[in-house]
Design a protein that fits this description.
The complex is a heterodimer of chains A (744) and B (428).
Chain A: E1 2-6, E2 9-13, H1 19-25, E3 49-52, E4 59-60, E5 71-73, H2 77-92, H3 108-116, E6 139-141, H4 151-160, E7 165-168, E8 175-178, H5 191-195, E9 201-203, E10 216-221, E11 230-236, E12 239-245, H6 258-262, E13 277-280, E14 283-286, H7 289-304, E15 310-314, H8 320-332, E16 338-339, H9 359-363, E17 367-371, H10 375-378, H11 380-391, E18 395-400, E19 412-415, H12 418-431, H13 447-456, E20 461-465, H14 467-470, H15 475-489, E21 492-495, H16 502-507, H17 515-521, E22 525-529, H18 533-536, H19 541-549, E23 552-557, H20 562-567, E24 570-573, E25 582-585, E26 591-594, H21 607-617, H22 628-637, E27 659-663, H23 677-680, E28 690-692, E29 698-703, E30 706-714, E31 722-726, E32 741-743
Parallel strand pairs in A: 1-5, 15-16, 15-22, 17-18, 17-20, 18-19, 20-21, 22-23, 23-24, 27-31, 28-30
Antiparallel strand pairs in A: 1-2, 3-4, 3-5, 6-9, 7-8, 10-11, 11-12, 13-14, 13-24, 25-26, 28-31, 29-30, 29-32
Helix pairs in contact in A: 8-21, 8-22, 12-13, 12-15
Chain B: H1 22-27, H2 32-38, H3 44-54, H4 66-71, E1 82-87, H5 96-103, H6 105-119, E2 123-128, H7 133-148, E3 164-169, H8 179-186, E4 210-214, H9 215-227, H10 229-235, E5 243-250, E6 256-261, H11 266-272, E7 282-286, E8 295-296, H12 297-302, H13 307-313, E9 321-326, H14 331-345, H15 351-368, H16 376-387, H17 395-420
Helix pairs in contact in B: 3-10, 5-6, 5-7, 6-9, 9-10, 14-15, 14-17, 15-16, 15-17, 16-17
Classes of the chains: A alpha/beta (744), B alpha/beta (428).
C-alpha cells in the first residue's frame, strides 16, 4: 500500500491504481463521462482532468496511475479551469433539449453541467445535428445529443462481444452508428442505455412514458431466466414503466439481459386477466373473488374423493411461496400428480439441476465443455462470464446440433444431430476411461475425443449441459454421460437451470408425476398456475387437448388467451413476479426474496394469497399466514435434499436420418416475454421456419397424419441430419417437436 | 553571401540520373554501412553512441534526440519488436520527406535496417501518406530491389539476421502522422491517437515495443555512420547536429526543398529560395509547419534556422516547413484556412479538440466574412487557451498555436475586419 494526498486528505492506494478509482473509494468526487469501471480506459472526454503536483498539464484521473507521495488537487484553480473548459466544449454542440429528453433528471451531463457549466453559453454558431438511424425496437437514438464518450462502442467490443456500434468520421463529424443499414441485435443490448451518460441512447419502449423523477423505484429479482439478476422496477402511478439492473457483483454485475429488461412491456397485454371469472353454461361471468373461490370449492369437491383424477401444472417461474402453498394444498387434498418440468420430454432418469460453480468461479475456469446449449439465448449473462473466462485464456468446446453464433472463440466444436451428440459424448467419456454400457461401448474414439477428455482433466474445468439437451429426447443419456465424464475427469458437472425458479421447484420436490405420464393418463380436474400449455410445454396442441378433455380446469393465471378461455372453467387472475412478494432460487442456489413492487391490475391478486385463501375455503389446516415471509420460512423447512447422482438410462433412444430438434426462441420463454411487443419485434423473436442444411425451400413436419408445411432456412451452421423446429409458436402447435418427423 | 553548402546528407544523390535505383545508390557507397553492421563491425551500442554523438534530433517536428530514443529499447527483450518510419508528412507546408522517398529511397531503407538492427526489430513498416502515390511506388520498388539484392529478408548476407520491410499506404488523415494514431492505422483500426503512457517503446505496434522515427531522421543514419557522428554534429550547431531539409513555400520565387546546415540564417535560406515573390516585402513567416507560431518579418529576419534560435524568436523549428508570407497577405484569411484544416483533421476523439477546432474556425470565418463582433478576439484567445494542454495528442495544441500567434502579432487586422467588415487591404 502507498499513500497519496488528494486535496490534502491522505488516501491509501495500491501502486498503479488509477487515480479516479482511488478518489472514488475515498468518496472524493471527480467528474467523468467516458470512464466506466467495467470498461477499458479511453481518456477521451477529458472531464476528469485534475492537477497533480509536478505535472505541467492537468492529467486525466482515469488514466493516471498513482505513485507514492503523489499530491493531487481536484478542485484547485488549475483543475477547475480544465474541468470547466471541457464542460464548456461538451455543451457547445449539445442540443440542450433537456425538457424533451428522456434522460432529463438522470443525465450525467446535466448533473455535471450543474456544477461545472456556466449558466450562459458563449457559443453562438450553428450547432451540430446528427441524423438518426433506426437501430431496432429496443433502443431509441438521438445522436445529436451524443458526447462521443464511446462507452457504448467499448461495451460491444469488450463486454457483449458483438461490435455493433462504432465511431465513424472524424472531428465534429464523428458519429456513433451501426454498420450501414444494420440494427442492434445483441441479447444484452439494453445495457448501452444505462451506459450512455446522455440522452443519445435511451429505451425505446420507455420513450416519453414518464420523467425520471416521477417514478417510484423498488428492488426486485428478474424472473425470466434462472440467473436471478437483481433489478430495480420503476413504476408510475402503480404501472411498471421500466426495469433497470441493480448492481450485484456476484450475479449480474451491472448488466441485464434484454429479456429481463424489456419483458415488463408484456405486463399490460390485452388479454391480461383482471377479474375472477367463472364459466356457467358455457358463458363467462365476471364475479367477485369470494364467489369465484366458492365456485372452486363447489366444482372441485366431486373430484376430491378420487385425488388421482386431479392433476396440477405449475410454471417453473412461479415463486417458492406459490409452489410451496400449491404443494401443501394439493398434498392435503391427497393430490400427488404435480409437474413443473414442462419443456422436457425425456423423464427416464432423475436429473438434478444446478450451477454448482459461483459465477465468479465460472470466470476463472480453464476449460468449459458446453453440451447442448445455446448459451447466449438460454442464459445471456452466464454467457458473458464464460466469455470472460475465454478471453482470459480458457478453452471452450461445443457439442451442439447447431454451431450457434458465439460471442467468443470456440477452441473446438462437434456439430452433430442429437442422437450423434450422445455417441460423441460417449466417445469423450470412453476416452476419459469410462466404462460404457452396451449400446454405447462400441463408439469409436478418435484423437479429438482424447483431446476433449484431456482438456476436461485440467484444473478448473466444467461441463455445462443446457436447454438444447434438456428439450431433446436424449436428455437422459446426455446428462448421464456428462456425469460420468465429470466423475472421470474431475470436471464439475452443471445441468443448467433455465427458468427463474426451477431450483426452487426442485428444492420443494414439487413434481410428483412426469408430464408425459400426465398426458397419457389424462385428468378429470386440472389446476394450472401460470401455464400456457400450448407454448410452455413441448407438446403443443396435445397438451391443450388434455385440458380440453378434463371436466374441470381451474386456471390461476395473469393472462388468459383465447385457448385458455376455452378449456378453463374458472379463471383466477393472479399477479406476475412484478406484482407479488416472493422468492426465487437462482441457478447457483441462491434464495432471493423480494417485496411486492406494485399492485396487479384490477382485481388480480398475488397467487400466494389466492392459494392461502383457497386453503381456508377448502378447510385445510395451516393456511393462516399473514405475511409471505411466514410462507417462506415454512417452505425453507420443507426443502428436500437433491441427490447428485444421474443414473445411466437402461435403453438408448435411436436416432433417425433426419432428427427434429425443438428450438425455443430467445423471446418465447414465458407468458410475459411472449407478450412483450418490443421483444417480439427484436432479433430474438421466434420465426415460423425450420432451419436445416436441407436444400429445400419448404419442409413438411408431421405427427401421425397431421402435417404442417414450413418455410426452410438453409444454414450450414446446422448439423447434418438435424432440422430445427420452432416451438412455442402457433404455426407448429399441431406438430409438436416431441413427435414431429420430416416428411419427404 | 558566402556559398551555402547544399544537399550533404539525405539529398546527396538527388542530382543524379535515376538516383532511386539501387545501382546508383550502391555506386555511391550505399549499403556499405549495412554490410558492416551485419558483419559485426558495428555493434548496436556503437551505433547508438555514434548517433548520440551526431546530435541528431528527430526531424518529424518534436526534435527528440534520436540516440536517446533508441537507447530506450531493450534489444534483447523476448518477442517481436518493430521499427516504424513515419512518412505520413501531412503538416501544411511540409514536403521534405516526399523527395527522400522519390529520389533517395535506398538511404531510407538502409536507415530503417540499421535502426531495426539496433533495437532488435526483425520487421519494419514505412507508413506513407495516402496522397503520395508516386513516392509510394518509388519506395516500394526500392524495397523490392533491396530484397532482390539479398539485403532484406531472412538470414541477410549469411549473417543470421532477419529483417522484413513493409510499405504501408495511409488513407489521407493528417492525424495518422501522430505516432500512436499511425500505429492504430497500421493495425487496421481507425486512426486515433492512444493515450500515453504507455509509450510505443513499451506498448507499440500490436502491443509490442516499437520505435518510430521520421523519414529524414532515418535517412540520415547511414551518412552519420559512414562519415562519423562528429562529422554530422559539426555540420550543425551545439545541441542540434547535421543538415536539415527546409521545405520553403509560399511567396518566394523558387519554392522547394533546401537541405542546408542546421543554423543557417533565415535570410540566407530566403535568398536561396530566390527571395520574396515579385520583389515584395516579407510580412510574416511560419518557420516549422502550420502548427508552429507565425513570426513577423523583423523577428524572422534575425533568426537562424535551428531549434534554439527559432525558439528564442518565439516559434519552433518543427519539421522545417517554412511558409513565407509577403506584404499583401491577409492574415485573417490565412488563419481562416489554417483553422479549417485543423477543424477538418481533428480525429474527434477527445472533447476539447473535437469541439474547439470547429468553434475557432467558425469564429474566424465569421470575422472574415464581415460578421465579426468585438468580443470575438477575446473569445478566440479564450477558446485556443482552453484546448491547449488538455488533449490526448498534439493536434489540439497544433490547432491553437496558430490562432494564438496570429492574434499576438496581427490582432489589428482582425480588429479591422470586425470594425469595417473587410480586410486592411480592401478599399472601404
Amino acid at each position: 500500500m502507498i499513500k497519496i494526498e488528494i486535496n490534502g486528505q491522505v488516501v491509501e492506494a495500491h501502486e498503479g491504481d488509477m487515480l479516479i478509482d482511488v478518489a472514488d473509494s475515498a468518496d472524493i468526487p471527480i467528474p467523468r463521462f467516458c470512464y466506466h469501471k467495467k470498461l477499458s480506459i479511453a481518456a477521451n472526454c477529458r472531464m476528469c482532468l485534475v492537477e497533480v503536483e509536478g505535472a505541467p498539464k492537468a492529467l486525466p484521473a482515469c488514466a493516471t496511475p498513482v505513485t507514492d507521495g503523489m499530491k493531487v488537487f481536484t478542485r484547485s484553480p488549475k483543475a477547475r479551469a480544465a474541468q470547466k473548459a471541457v464542460m464548456e466544449f461538451l455543451l457547445i454542440n449539445h442540443p440542450l433539449d433537456c425538457p424533451i429528453c428522456d434522460q432529463g433528471g438522470e443525465c450525467e451531463l446535466q448533473d455535471v453541467a450543474f456544477e461545472y457549466g456556466d449558466d450562459v453559453g458563449k457559443y453562438s454558431e450553428a450547432k451540430r445535428v446528427v441524423p438518426d438511424h433506426d437501430v431496432g425496437p429496443l433502443i431509441a437514438t438521438d445522436m445529436t445529443r451524443c458526447i462521443h464518450c464511446t462507452r457504448c462502442v467499448r461495451f460491444g467490443q469488450e463486454i457483449s462481444g458483438l461490435m455493433e456500434l462504432g465511431a465513424v468520421g472524424r472531428s465534429e463529424w464523428m458519429e456513433i452508428t451501426t454498420f450501414v443499414g444494420k440494427s442492434i441485435t445483441s441479447e444484452i443490448s439494453g445495457n448501452i442505455i444505462d451506459l450512455c451518460p446522455v440522452g443519445a441512447l435511451t429505451s425505446k419502449p420507455f420513450r416519453y412514458k414518464a420523467r425520471a423523477w416521477e417514478l417510484k423505484a423498488a428492488p426486485a429479482i428478474a424472473a425470466h431466466d434462472s440467473l436471478g439478476s437483481n433489478i430495480e422496477v420503476h413504476t408510475y402511478h402503480g404501472k411498471v414503466m421500466r426495469v433497470v439492473p441493480r448492481e450485484n457483483e456476484a450475479i449480474n454485475e451491472v448488466w441485464l439481459s434484454d429479456r429481463d429488461r424489456f419483458a415488463y412491456t408484456g405486463l399490460y397485454a390485452e388479454d391480461r386477466l383482471t377479474v375472477p371469472m367463472v364459466k356457467r353454461n358455457g358463458r363467462w361471468e365476471e364475479v367477485e373473488w369470494e364467489e369465484a373461490l366458492e365456485a372452486v370449492v363447489e366444482r372441485l369437491k366431486p373430484f376430491l374423493n378420487s385425488p388421482q383424477d386431479i392433476a396440477v401444472l405449475a410454471s417453473p417461474n412461479a415463486t417458492v411461496e406459490e409452489l410451496y402453498l400449491l404443494r401443501k394444498l394439493t398434498d392435503a387434498l391427497g393430490v400427488r400428480r404435480r409437474e413443473w418440468r414442462l419443456r422436457q420430454q425425456d423423464f427416464r432418469v432423475e436429473v438434478p439441476l444446478g450451477l454448482k460453480l459461483g459465477l465468479d468461479e465460472v470466470e476463472q475456469l480453464n476449460h468449459v465443455l458446453v453440451v447442448g446449449s445455446h448459451l447466449r439465448h438460454e442464459l445471456p449473462l452466464l454467457n458473458l462470464r464464460v466469455r470472460k473466462a475465454q478471453l482470459a485464456g480458457a478453452s471452450v468446446h461445443m457439442l451442439n446440433p447447431m454451431d450457434y453464433a458465439s460471442t467468443f472463440d470456440i477452441a473446438d466444436r462437434l456439430i452433430v444431430k442429437p442422437s450423434e451428440m450422445v455417441r460423441q459424448l460417449a466417445a469423450v467419456a470412453k476416452a476419459a476411461g469410462a466404462e460404457l454400457p452396451a449400446g454405447l461401448s462400441d463408439v469409436p474414439v478418435t484423437d479429438q475425443h482424447h483431446a476433449w477428455a484431456e482438456a476436461l482433466k485440467q484444473d478448473k474445468s466444467a461441463i455445462f449441459v443446457g436447454g438444447v439437451a434438456r428439450m431433446s429426447r436424449h436428455y437422459a443419456e446426455l446428462a448421464a454421460l456428462a456425469a460420468v465424464l465429470g466423475e472421470k475427469t474431475g470436471a464439475s458437472v452443471n445441468i443448467l437451470p433455465l427458468a427463474a425458479n426451477e431450483m426452487g421447484a426442485q428444492a420443494l420436490d414439487f413434481a410428483g408425476e412426469s408430464f408425459n405420464d400426465m398426458l397419457e393418463k389424462g385428468a378429470k380436474a386440472v389446476i394450472t398456475l401460470g401455464v400456457e400449455p400450448e407454448y410452455d410445454t413441448l407438446w403443443g396442441e396435445r397438451a391443450v387437448q388434455m385440458l380440453e378433455q378434463a371436466e374441470l380446469v381451474i386456471n390461476l393465471t395473469p393472462f388468459a388467451n383465447a385457448r385458455a378461455r376455452e378449456y378453463s372453467d374458472i379463471l383466477l387472475p393472479v399477479a406476475t413476479a412484478y406484482e407479488t412478494a416472493g422468492t426465487l432460487v437462482s441457478a447457483t442456489g441462491t434464495w432471493q426474496s423480494f417485496k411486492q413492487v406494485t399492485d396487479a391490475p384490477g382485481d388480480a391478486k398475488p397467487a400466494w394469497k389466492v392459494l392461502r385463501v383457497l386453503g381456508n375455503v377448502l378447510d385445510v389446516d395451516g393456511f393462516d399466514y399473514i405475511h409471505a415471509d411466514q410462507v417462506l420460512e415454512e417452505a425453507r423447512q420443507a426443502v428436500t435434499e437433491v441427490g447428485a447422482e444421474i443414473a445411466m438410462p437402461d435403453t438408448f433412444v435411436a436416432g433417425g436420418e433426419l432428427e427434429v430438434v425443438p428450438s425455443l426462441a430467445l423471446y418465447s420463454t414465458d407468458m410475459v416475454v411472449r407478450r412483450a411487443e418490443p421483444l417480439q419485434q427484436a432479433a430474438g423473436a421466434a420465426v415460423a421456419e425450420t432451419v436445416s442444411r436441407l436444400e429445400t425451400e419448404k419442409v413438411v413436419l408431421c405427427c401421425g397424419e397431421t402435417c404442417v408445411e414450413l418455410p426452410n432456412r438453409q444454414d450450414e451452421a446446422v448439423a447434418e441430419g438435424a432440422v430445427f423446429e420452432p416451438v412455442a409458436i402457433d404455426e407448429t402447435l399441431t406438430v409438436p417437436a416431441v413427435c414431429a418427423e420430416v416428411r419427404a | 553571401m558566402a556559398e551555402i553548402p547544399l544537399n550533404e546528407c539525405c539529398y546527396r544523390l538527388n542530382h543524379l540520373d535515376r538516383s532511386w535505383d539501387i545501382d546508383v545508390y550502391m555506386a555511391n557507397g550505399g549499403y556499405e554501412v549495412w554490410k558492416k553492421v551485419l558483419a559485426g563491425e558495428l555493434t548496436p551500442q556503437e551505433i547508438i553512441d555514434e548517433v548520440k554523438t551526431s546530435n541528431i534530433r528527430g526531424r518529424g517536428g518534436a526534435g527528440f534526440p534520436t540516440g536517446l530514443k533508441w537507447s530506450f529499447m531493450n534489444r534483447h527483450a523476448p518477442g517481436p519488436k518493430y521499427i516504424l518510419c513515419n512518412s505520413d508528412e501531412g503538416e501544411p507546408g511540409t514536403f521534405k520527406d516526399r523527395d527522400i522517398l522519390r529520389y533517395n529511397p535506398h538511404q531510407l531503407i538502409e536507415g530503417m535496417m540499421i535502426a531495426g538492427y539496433v533495437i532488435g526489430a526483425n520487421a519494419g513498416y514505412n507508413y506513407i501518406r495516402g496522397e503520395f502515390w508516386e513516392p509510394y511506388k518509388r519506395f516500394d520498388n526500392a524495397v523490392k530491389q533491396a530484397y532482390e539484392a539479398g539485403l532484406l529478408g531472412k538470414n541477410i548476407l549469411g549473417s543470421g539476421w532477419d529483417f522484413d520491410l513493409y510499405t504501408h499506404l495511409g488513407a489521407g488523415a493528417y492525424i495518422c502522422g501522430e505516432e500512436t494514431a499511425l500505429i492504430e492505422s497500421i493495425e487496421g483500426k481507425k486512426g486515433q491517437p492512444r493515450f500515453k503512457p504507455p509509450f510505443p517503446a513499451s506498448y507499440g505496434l500490436y502491443g509490442r515495443p516499437t520505435t518510430i522515427n521520421n523519414t529524414e531522421t532515418l535517412a540520415s543514419i547511414p551518412m552519420i555512420l559512414a562519415k562519423g557522428g562528429k562529422w554530422f554534429a559539426d555540420l550543425g550547431v551545439p545541441g542540434a547536429g547535421g543538415t536539415k531539409i527546409y521545405a520553403v513555400s509560399g511567396h518566394v520565387e523558387k519554392p522547394g526543398n533546401y537541405e542546408v546546415r542546421m543554423g543557417t540564417p533565415f535570410k540566407d535560406l530566403l535568398s536561396l529560395a530566390g527571395g520574396v515573390w515579385k520583389g515584395r516585402k516579407l510580412k510574416a513567416v511560419i518557420p516549422g509547419g502550420s502548427s508552429t507560431a507565425v513570426l513577423p518579418a523583423e523577428k524572422a529576419m534575425k533568426m537562424n534556422m535551428d531549434y534554439d534560435s527559432i525558439a528564442k524568436a518565439g516559434s519552433f523549428l518543427g519539421a522545417g516547413s517554412v511558409i513565407i508570407m509577403d506584404e499583401t497577405t491577409d492574415m485573417v484569411k490565412a488563419l481562416e484556412r489554417l483553422t479549417w484544416f485543423y477543424y477538418e483533421e481533428s480525429c474527434g476523439q477527445c472533447t476539447p479538440c473535437r469541439e474547439g477546432t470547429g468553434w475557432m474556425y467558425r469564429v474566424v470565418h465569421r470575422i472574415r466574412t464581415g460578421k465579426g463582433r468585438p468580443e470575438d478576439i477575446e473569445m478566440l484567445k479564450d477558446v485556443s487557451g482552453k484546448i491547449m494542454g488538455r488533449v490526448i495528442c498534439g493536434l489540439g495544441d497544433a490547432a491553437s498555436i496558430p490562432v494564438a500567434s496570429f492574434l499576438e502579432h496581427f490582432e489589428h487586422e482582425f480588429r479591422h475586419y470586425i470594425e469595417h467588415g473587410c480586410s486592411i487591404y480592401d478599399r472601404a
